[in-house]
Amino acid sequence: MTAERPEVPRASAIRPYVITRGRTESEGEPLSWESLVMTAEAAFPATLQPEHLAILKHCEGLISVAEVAAHLGQPPSVAQVLLSDLLRWGLIVTRPPIPPAEHTDVTMLRKVLHGLESCL
């Protein structure tokens, strides 16, 4: 008879305070949920937590803090703490969210819509 292997907990099964090591706020300026993050051109140390590595995998292109939280299956506050670690270590870069357009040209949008409808 073989011994059963213990089941490895999924990231979402681990309590958030364990992932953040008890921290409830990010160090430095907190990132807004709309802030965009992306991996930096730095080598990743082998000592990162699995959650940090998962974030870096998803941050190969611009992604928001809220999207990172959704990919991790964790609350945005947990993602903010982990992202602040990566930012402090120089492994990610941030940029403010893209501001909404100040003026929407309705005439142009109607022309685009008409053009798309004519293609169908």
From TrEMBL:
Pfam families documented for this protein: DUF742
Record InterPro entries: DUF742 (IPR007995)
Name this polypeptide is given: DUF742 domain-containing protein
Upper taxonomic lineage: Bacteria, Bacillati, Actinomycetota, Actinomycetes, Kitasatosporales
